[in-house]
Amino acid sequence: MRRYVLAALLLASTAGVMGCQPAKQLFDPDVTAAPLPQARILMREVDEQGSATATVLKGTDGQPLAVLEPALISTADIASVALAQTGQGQEPVLNLTMTDAAAPRIQAATEARVGRRVAVSVGDKVLSVATIRGPFGKAMQVAGLGDQNEASRVFTEITGKQP
After folding, report:
1. Would 1 be classed as within a structural domain?
2. More exposed terminus of the chain, fewer Cβ within 10 Å: N or C?
3. In a domain, 79, yes or no
4. Reported pTM
């Protein structure tokens, strides 16, 4: 089973940057775009308790994955999306920068959920499942997108723009 990584970094709040290296841009650094409203990007806590009200999605491994509502992050909370790659493995990642209005709420939500698993999805497709290692509010990075072609496809789906 492939493990996916979700890491907070970049402008990750006064609580500190997570244990990842800063990302560098994968394509043109000017290709940063706001997400399309219809992209339906969500980050939700994974339901580890078997709640009857959980939403069930298909996980990254194809198995059912139950997530809790409401979402911790939604499309409206995201100011911009950029394609980048990790400094070490050159793995493609999406850098998400949150709106100033959403950052304090996201900071509080992730601080209360350190050690818990979350799923990032676009529409009904789970992109990544990972454990929150520390609180973040202003920015986060989503890895586990596959190769550069798949990462470009996801970026275009989210933003309507070519990288």
Report:
1. no
2. N
3. yes
4. 0.80
- Quick check: 110 and 104 in contact, CB under 8 A? no
Residue carrying the six token digits 């990750």: 12
State the CATH number of the domain containing residue 60.
3.30.1360.200
Task: Determine contact, residues 51/42, Cβ cutoff 8 Å.
Answer: no
Give 138's DSSP letter.
Answer: S
For a pLDDT cut of 70, what percent of the chain falls above it? 80
Between residues 102 and 87, which one has the greater pLDDT? Answer: 102
* Burial grade of 30 (CB within 10 A; 0-12, 13-18, 19 or more): exposed
Q: In the chain, where do the E strands start and end?
A: 6-7, 24-25, 32-33, 41-45, 55-58, 64-67, 73-74, 78-85, 92-98, 117-122, 125-131, 139-142
Domain region containing 134: 6-159
Give me the number of domains the chain comprises.
1
